[in-house]
Amino acid sequence: MSGSLLPLPILIPLLTAIVCLLNLRSRRFQRAAALLGAAALWAAGVVLLRTVWNHGIQVVQIGSWPAPYGITLVADVLAAVMVLLAGTVGLAVVYYSLFTVDAARESFGYYPLLHILLMGVCGAFLTGDLFNLYVWFEVMLIASFVLLAMGGERAQLEGAIKYVTLNLMSSSLFLTAIGILYSLAGTLNMADLAVKLSAVDNPGLVTTVAMLFLASFGIKAAVFPLFFWLPASYHVPPVAVSAIFAGLLTKVGVYAIIRAFTLIFRQDVEYTHSIILWVAGLTMVTGVLGAAAQNEFRRILSFHIVSQIGYMIMGLGLMSPLALAGSVFYIAHHIIVKTNLFLVSGLAYRLRGTGELAALGGWYQSRPLLSALFIVPAFSLAGIPPLSGFFAKLTLVKAGLELEQYAIVAAALIVSLLTLYSMTKIWAEVFWKPAPDAADIPATRGGPSAIHDGLLLIPVAALAIVTVAIGLGAGDVFQVALRASAQLLDPAEYVSAVLGGNQ
Amino acid sequence: MTILLAIVTGALYAAGLYMMLRRNIVRLVIGLVLLSHAANLLVFLGGGLTRDRPPFIPLGAAAPTAPIVDPLPQALVLTAIVISFAVLAFALVLVYRAYETVGSDDLDDMKATDT
After folding, report:
1. Is residue A433 classed as helix, strand or coil in its secondary structure?
2. ipTM beyond cut 0.95
3. Is A125 helix (H, G, I), strand (E, B) or coil?
4. pLDDT, one tens digit for every residue, chain B (115 residues)
5. Which of A156, A164, A230, A306 best tests the B interface by mutation, with the highest count of B CBs <10 A?
6. Nearest CB to B115: which of A155, A169, A231?
7. Closest approach of chain B CAs to the CA of A319, in angstroms?
8. Between the CA atoms of A130, A131, A132 and A136, what dihedral angle is there, to the nearest 10 degrees?
9. Domain locations along chain B
10. CB-closest option in B47, B79, B114 to A232
11. How many CB atoms lie within 10 A of CB A300?
12. The CATH number of the domain covering residues in B2-47+70-109
């Protein structure tokens, strides 16, 4: 019976999407089904994490074909945590969409697409097979393409062209790497690869393939120098879509990098992981400098995604138990916080019809509660104690100091300071400065009602509470992160769980 | 034969990348098409070329007797072709809509969302 609930995080969004598509004409039904489906996905994530925590790695061989011949679904602690986070963000965003997405998009299948996106994301987290990972990536990508372009505004189409082109290129690279890896090892099951690659007598080619994977996943994760599609496209779709992209999509790339470089490519750690460390440092710095130059709410946040990806990769580059735990902690913190910040930016957009900082202002006076709710994720992003970001950064910095990698530690600390600068800029412009003269502001779009605004605060407040809770309960979260990193560093448990007696 | 196919694969990659570097959005899509073809061909080659050895198990035997062609890369390529078909169909529609909306097929006219 072990792991029979493992396919649930894939099946629930699929069923929700099907039910929604069958009732495409009834918007009311779609909204109810989408919310229910997201709640069910979140619940499945909770149960999955509890099961993995209590009973170890869960494995399902699809169609009962034994590994490595069939497709395997695997959930270790990292995968279970990611699924839970996807469920949390999905629930918050679906709820937020109920009040912000216009009727035209809803009638054109917005909710089914959102759930197919969630299915692709959860599938990518749970799969134990490289080609299957490619398929889940494509499921996720095609849903995100449509979500990004849906509505057909000029900015959306322009952003979508860049997003589509670079992501398709990444997919081609991924497929190329899969082809070469298969001809080297004769298998694509990740656990089987972990065993067989050590026996391949061509370590140079293996390292080359590893770099191909790094480039392919790096485009999806938006690391330096492959991130240019992200700030060009993440600010164009409706805010709810931006929020779920910002929270989840790049993190799937980060997850794939972490999985590939802890489980499969461990032949030449000295070489590959020092490249990863360099990439991490440069990603942090360029991202935060890009953000400093921006004056639009969502563009600033988009560049900060890039900068934060650097921290997640940094833990992998250091490759010690503490550092990987820091990465896992950081991913958990970042997904919640970044989604929340995008949701707040959506409220700004609703009020003024623009995200330009110059046109916003005076919120501290008119909306003290919302201001307080912005402060929580913003400070957390910058790493102010006792919020979640502080402990994530503390762990990474401590790990860096232990390994005497002072350069990356210095970069992390300086970037943290610059992050605070960006957040202060948003605070000063949007919340503190007096509201600009109403005459030169474009009229509010759609005339949001006060009731909706009150309801919209619920997901923002909920995510803020999660951020505070991660900070206050940092000890417990850290235990989870440590166990995830222990499993990553010692693949033996993963391999024996997947392959069983077939090793 | 393998060498010939390897050269063809390399040429496809080169042609695809070259087309993607052009400013015209139609060439961009053609570049993406060529690139996905190149990747598919490479996966196919990855299994090794074996002629006239279908992966059948003779009647009465439990395992194939002679060396056979590896069927897995072909199954993978089939999946990849279907996926790239769908994705490229989307890309074509996207490019057409962008052309209609922007009124130009030049990527340099589509920089409004860049930073």
Report:
1. coil
2. no
3. helix
4. 888 999 999 999 999 999 999 889 999 999 999 999 999 999 988 877 877 777 788 888 887 777 788 888 888 999 999 999 999 999 999 999 988 888 888 888 877 777 6
5. A164
6. A231
7. 31
8. 100
9. 2-47+70-109
10. B114
11. 25
12. 1.10.287.3510
